[in-house]
From TrEMBL:
<dbReference type="InterPro" id="IPR046373">
    <property type="entry name" value="Acyl-CoA_Oxase/DH_mid-dom_sf"/>
</dbReference>
<dbReference type="GO" id="GO:0050660">
    <property type="term" value="F:flavin adenine dinucleotide binding"/>
</dbReference>
<dbReference type="Pfam" id="PF08028">
    <property type="entry name" value="Acyl-CoA_dh_2"/>
</dbReference>
<dbReference type="InterPro" id="IPR037069">
    <property type="entry name" value="AcylCoA_DH/ox_N_sf"/>
</dbReference>
<protein>
    <submittedName>
        <fullName>Acyl-CoA dehydrogenase</fullName>
    </submittedName>
</protein>
<keyword id="KW-0560">Oxidoreductase</keyword>
<dbReference type="GO" id="GO:0016627">
    <property type="term" value="F:oxidoreductase activity, acting on the CH-CH group of donors"/>
</dbReference>
<dbReference type="InterPro" id="IPR009100">
    <property type="entry name" value="AcylCoA_DH/oxidase_NM_dom_sf"/>
</dbReference>
<dbReference type="InterPro" id="IPR013107">
    <property type="entry name" value="Acyl-CoA_DH_C"/>
</dbReference>
<feature type="domain" description="Acyl-CoA dehydrogenase C-terminal">
    <location>
        <begin position="250"/>
        <end position="330"/>
    </location>
</feature>
Amino acid sequence: MNTQKLREKCFGIEEFTADILNWIQSENLWNIWVPKTYGGLEMNLSEGLQMLREVSKIDGSLGWTITLCSGANYFVGNLKEGTIKKIFNNPKATCLGGSGAIKGTAEKVGEKYRISGDWNYATGSHYLSHFTLNASIIENGVPLKNEDGSEKFLSFILPKDKITIISDWRAMGLKATLTNSFKVHDVLVGEEYSFEYDRFHQPQAIFQLPFRVFADLTLWVNYIGMAHHFHKEAKNLTKCNYLDMLMHELKIADKMLFNYAEELEAVISKKKPIGGNKIEEIHKSASNSVRNLSEAIIKIYPALGMRACSENQELNQVFRDYFTATQHHNFVNR
């Protein structure tokens, strides 16, 4: 399916059709980061970011869903081999997603955990084979603490038949991401389905990245892709000078993003750690870039006329998708 055909199929829908989902599976895009050993594409950081940039340029919901679900499949690096083989027994159909919030509880019962709670914002909820969640650990009725006094939590993976989806996604954009809430009630799971998100068991370079850096870069590239799409559509309606401002910011963002990717790959190849200062630098750069892109788009929008306000126009959908994405907590300064 070519880019234009895919864009047409994504326009105006509130849920991906079977042919869109089949295309994602045929391209194995849920598994951008998954090792080839387990049926994935095993892309390096630069390759994966380039792929995410291209799909987010096609459609915001498409890029966002593939980013967050492939980002959840990235947790393959946190799992032990036996668990991986159970979850990724049909790799192209394996699609993880869920919530990063620590909201529910997991009561330790022998070598299992009894999980209950509700979580918000599971991107791709209707497309998932498994849900990921974070839960506070309780043992003998007492919440456990880490050595520093913070609450102890673990991440878990549960099959979709143990989950109840709450259909509450009513955002103005990214509609087809179906980023619904979900709940779990009294589900018992083996400890092999628990993991710590910052402990890895796979040797590939991508799993040597601090998770915060991985999240920053993979989200940032979505804003860049959607902003490129906005620029493409907007230049058909106006010649205002702010178009040049947006393209200037896009060139800076593209260069900075991929320079960081190459720099990180070089550091990892030398088996050196990525320091806290670099992690903070990347987060600040990404946050500033998203802010600059947003300001440029907002300055262009008043010059676009009524067509930009019409929901049956592609430009309007791109605008709504982009600014829905800006509300993700990662880059929001409240």
